[in-house]
Design goal:
With 232 residues, the protein is α+β, with helices and mostly antiparallel strands. It has helices at residues 72-76, 89-92, 122-125, 132-143, 222-226; strands at 10-13, 19-22, 27-34, 40-48, 54-57, 94-97, 101-105, 150-154, 159-161, 168-174, 179-186, 190-192, 204-207. The strands form three sheets. Strands 4-3-10-11-13 form a five-stranded mixed β-sheet, with no helix packed on it. The structure holds FE2/S2 (inorganic) cluster. The site of FE2/S2 (inorganic) cluster has 13 residues, from strand 11 and helix 5.
Length: 232
């Protein structure tokens, strides 16, 4: 995968149409790897797509050439109205303070990847962060959350703990749920709304590509309930 920072990488949302990606953002599938208990435990890299300077990613869920747009949004009358809060993440977040670390949580951003669940769930692990094993699990599970719903903070420094990502796009696959998931935008790529609004730049964001989210442009986990598949 290209690890050089692309120049001026952006995702522009077109009105009732696709995501217009520019800045040579690398694109590949990212698969949710599970253990025998079907708990999400690791990200596995999948198919890579040839590098392109610009491309249009399907947002309505109906393209026959997914992940790319084929114009189907116009035929199906896709309503891509952006309804998500535009407040900065931290203003929306619930804070849970533990002994050495804290957790911030914006539930509306949940993309249902379920890395939060193992080892008794991150909402409990944060209260055990005076213990090294629990702290390690808390940090790795929180950092694996693709949407950035969950963020770990170091109480001593007051700083968030974020995974290092080069600017790139992942297309999430969820074999345990037998569905495809959202677009995983990583490394601080600017998202621009159909009205020109510049969303807060974050290290991790998941954008809906099944068309069914009630929190557009972000994924709200609806892809699992509709059984979205990007191979159809
Ligand atoms: S891709 Fe998750 S709700 Fe659409």
């Amino acid at each position: 995968m290209n690890t050089q920072k692309p120049v001026d990488a952006k995702v522009r949302i077109s009105k009732d149409g696709p995501y217009l990606v520019s800045g040579e953002l690398p694109l590949r599938k990212e698969i949710i790897g599970t253990n025998d208990a079907e708990e999400s435990i690791k990200w596995q890299p999948g198919q890579e797509y040839p590098a392109k300077a610009q491309y249009a990613l399907c947002r309505c869920g109906h393209s026959a050439t997914k992940p790319f747009c084929d114009g189907s949004h116009a035929k199906v009358g896709f309503d891509g109205t952006e309804t998500a809060s535009r407040k900065p993440y931290i203003e929306q977040a619930e804070v849970i303070r533990g002994p050495t670390m804290s957790l911030t949580d914006v539930e509306s951003l949940c993309a249902f990847a379920r890395f939060c669940d193992p080892h008794g769930q991150v909402w409990n692990l944060v209260n055990e962060t005076d213990e090294p094993t629990a702290t390690k699990q808390f940090v790795s599970q929180t950092c694996a959350c693709p949407s950035g719903r969950l963020v770990a903070w170091d109480n001593a420094t007051g700083k968030p703990i974020e995974p290092a990502f080069a600017p790139s796009i992942g297309l999430i696959e969820d074999p345990a749920q037998r569905c495809s998931g959202p677009i995983w935008l990583r490394g601080g790529v600017q998202v621009i709304g159909a009205d020109g609004f510049e969303y807060e730049i974050r290290n991790r964001v998941t954008l809906c590509r099944c068309g069914a989210s009630k929190n557009k442009p972000f994924c709200d986990g609806a892809h699992a309930s509709i059984g979205f598949s990007d191979s159809q």
